[in-house]
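Q: I have 157 residues here and want to know how they pack in 3D. Can you give me a structure?
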Amino acid sequence: MDTLLNMETVLVIIGIALMIVEIVVFGFGSLFLLFISLACFGTALLMFLHILPETALVAFMAVAAQSIGWAIVLWKPLRKLQNKQQDPEQQRSALDGLVFTLDRDIDTNHHGSHRYSGIVWEVRAADPEQCPMAAGTEVRVVKSSVGKLFVEKVAAA
């Protein structure tokens, strides 16, 4: 008669716990716990199929060997996914679409400023062909970078 907590069950519980920690705490940042949890699942399967004996020493050795195997197989593809970045020029900003009124004239040589969220931003025209823009013109932010807002005139409705 099998007990409720046999070696396969313990390995599956450990694998699930490690997977939860990897996702919730590290956000797939370490990958180390992911490899160990996959090894726990694989070892539990091998023990369930009676390919490996159900002993703690065998479980420990199998998890260690499979962790190394999973790391070798998955390290580069997962690292590539983690390091995949969007082009900084195409990233959306919370400031995109912000509409405000210019407090001074701006043109290609003279930039304005706008205080938003406690920061004084330099305001520039996104399209030099729309210059000059007079004070009092309603504008919309189309792009932003560090300390700079690039704006266009809001079309009159």
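Q: Anything worth noting?
A: Residues 7-83 form one domain. The mean pLDDT is 84.
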